[in-house]
Design goal:
There is one protein chain. This protein has 115 residues and is α+β, with helices and mostly antiparallel strands. The chain has one domain: Dimeric alpha+beta barrel (Alpha-Beta Plaits, 2-Layer Sandwich). It contains 2 helices and 6 strands; from the N terminus they run βαββββαβ. The strands form 2 sheets. Strands 2-5-1-6 form a 4-stranded antiparallel sheet, covered by helices on one side. β3 and β4 form a beta hairpin. α1 packs antiparallel against α2. The relative contact order is 0.34.
């Protein structure tokens, strides 16, 4: 089994109203429970807003630290789930369910696993 990152693309906008967010989170928990029962779930985490991020990059002989992601972004990674799946098609199947639950785009990317 391979591991895949399912990254949630969060728009840079206010959160949905509480009633909508409650429904979304209920639907996300349902998908996570299904992943766990199937033995696919590895971990899930939400991320703080991008304003809390630091970007560290090597520049010549120095290392620069800046606040937040690139300024021109209109969305950011709001959270992620890592799943174990037989192949990318199986990971995409989980991402479809997660996209429906979150109402947001999900990026599927294989993980270089050093286990």
């Amino acid at each position: 089994m391979s591991r895949y990152l399912l990254a949630v693309y969060q728009p840079d906008a206010p959160a949905p109203p509480p009633a909508a967010l409650d429904r979304i989170m209920r639907d996300v928990r349902t998908v996570q429970d299904e992943m766990k029962k199937a033995g696919a779930w590895v971990m899930t985490a939400g991320l703080h807003p991008p304003g809390r991020a630091k970007v560290v990059r090597s520049k010549a002989e120095d290392v620069l630290v800046t606040d937040g992601p690139f300024a021109e972004t209109t969305e950011h990674i709001g959270g992620f789930t890592i799943v174990e799946a037989a192949d990318v098609s199986a990971a995409v199947a989980w991402a479809r369910k997660l996209a429906k639950a979150t109402t947001l785009p999900i990026e599927v990317r294989p993980v270089h696993d050093e286990r």
